[in-house]
Write a structure and sequence with these properties.
468 residues; 2 domains; alpha+beta; elongated; four-stranded antiparallel sheet; 8 helices; eleven-stranded antiparallel sheet
Length: 468
């Protein structure tokens, strides 16, 4: 009778262990379903959700760091046609995006529209010097006029340059170069980012995700248009992806992320590069794809971005994007800092550049379950062009068309400790607790089943030997 009790107890233990293991196994898909429903609910942009609270507020601090290129040999360039030698000077740091979205309006078609206010506040503690520091840089007005005025009218441009005592290079403060100054040639305010404070980016219209969570944050319209008006091509004018502040949940590392950047007037994509730990949260790092600014010879999709076959040497130069069509005809060329991934010819007319991926690559660190961007670094270089002229005195020694680097910027942000703790507490801890319960039930159940089954076999063998 005792043997029967032992065997029955072990069989019951094994059955109980099997039931617990099965329960743990059942909880895995059930738990995944609970997690998915929770995330889908909180990822929708509507009042009361985590996504809306993060989306509507200013969020973490966003900074723009600027490095201006200081020309070391301006007189040699003008008098002897020497190649300009530059050194970067910076960073000069400003806090941006400190103002919340304005005119937030929910629409009947499950979209929400808003305006993004622009503003910049100088941060001396994060800068190498004062806004009043001076740099010798390209004369924006002279370079701009050279590109915009037809060659047959350059004789009149030469008179205007001479009478205003303008030259190819100028000495200006950091503040003037970035935010504007009264230019004697144009007799108006000019600057790399003027006007900025008090202006708006948008109007944006994005999907809330209410009808389809996998569309949350995707840009539906920008400035009232479903496609861009800059490139005269269906492909290049496409509005793809989000504004990069977040992406639809359950991010797949095998698929690129698409986002639209008004700074460069086009949509781009980023691909997965590695997984990282950010303040105790796993994130996927997505980096701007290397072929984003490749020549059409390498990336045929870029053919419609090639605007000037003369400057781009019949569209064979990689690394620069002519965005004059979206900058009121200002001859602006965008690149990655220090012409990262650019053609060798870009380095032939400027000395002092040293591109490295670690310092000049654009990336996004995205939490894969929610799709929230928790850290990013958007790095862009602003360039202008000038070239040879038989009429304009300050350009007579110039030997070739030159895409000249003026400034590069790093717009960056990272969630703070308080937000990270809230994120882990409100979402990640619940997900982790459910996973622990699943694993514990499965582990304990399997262990109990195996242990009881093993002991049952041992007891049965002993009892069998006693009979003999």
């Amino acid at each position: 009778m005792a043997c029967c009790n032992r065997r029955c107890g072990l069989i019951a233990g094994a059955v109980f262990g099997a039931v617990v293991a099965i329960l743990g196994g059942v909880l895995i898909p059930l738990g995944d379903s609970i997690i998915e429903r929770t995330v889908e609910k909180e990822a929708v942009i509507e009042h009361g959700t985590t996504a809306y609270d993060n989306w509507a507020s200013t969020g973490g601090a966003v900074y723009r760091q600027f490095w201006l290129f200081d020309v070391k040999n301006p007189s040699k360039v003008l008098q002897h046609g020497a190649i300009p030698v530059v050194t970067e000077k910076g960073p000069y740091t400003y806090r941006t995006r400190y103002l919340p979205k304005e005119n937030i309006t929910f629409n009947n078609n499950h979209t929400v529209s808003f305006l993004l206010p622009m503003g910049a506040i100088f941060e001396p503690s994060m800068s190498v010097g004062s806004e009043e520091d001076s740099v010798t840089s390209l004369n924006l007005a002279v370079a701009g006029a050279y590109s915009l005025v037809p060659k047959v009218l350059h004789i009149f441009l030469e008179k205007a340059i001479s009478s205003s005592n303008s030259s190819l290079f100028q000495r200006r403060t950091v503040k003037e170069m970035l935010w504007g100054y009264r230019d004697p040639l144009l007799n108006s305010t000019t600057g790399l980012f003027a006007p900025y404070n008090g202006t708006f980016d948008g109007k944006y219209n994005v999907y809330t995700g209410k009808d389809d969570v996998y569309k949350v944050g995707l840009v539906d319209r920008w400035r009232g248009h479903r496609s861009l008006p800059f490139w005269n091509d269906k492909y290049c004018d496409m509005l793809n992806g989000t504004d990069a502040s977040s992406f639809p949940p359950f991010v797949d590392k095998k698929k690129p992320l698409y986002f639209f950047s008004s700074d460069i007037c086009r949509s781009v994509s980023a691909s997965y590069s590695e997984s990282l730990d950010l303040k105790g949260i796993e994130v996927y790092r997505f980096s701007l794809q290397r072929n984003t600014l490749a020549s059409p010879k390498v990336n045929p999709d870029n053919q419609c971005f090639c605007r000037d076959p003369v400057i781009t040497k019949n569209c064979t130069i990689a690394g620069v994007l002519d965005i004059a069509s979206c900058q009121n005809r200002k001859p602006i060329y965008i690149s990655l800092p220090h012409f990262l991934y650019g053609s060798p010819s870009l380095f032939e007319n400027v000395e002092g550049l040293d591109p490295t991926e670690a310092h000049h690559m654009t990336y996004l660190d995205v939490e894969p379950t929610t799709g929230f961007t928790l850290r990013f670094a958007k790095r862009i270089q602003v360039n202008m062009m000038y070239g040879p002229s038989k009429t304009i005195k300050v350009l007579k020694k110039v030997k070739d068309y030159t895409i000249f680097p003026v400034v590069w910027l790093n717009e960056t942000a990272m969630l703070d400790d308080e937000t990270a703790d809230m994120f882990k507490k409100e979402l990640m801890s619940r997900i982790r607790m459910l996973e622990i319960i699943q694993q514990a039930l499965l582990g304990v159940g399997v262990s109990l089943f195996v242990l009881c089954l093993t002991l049952y076999c041992v007891v049965r063998n002993k009892d069998a030997h006693k009979l003999y």
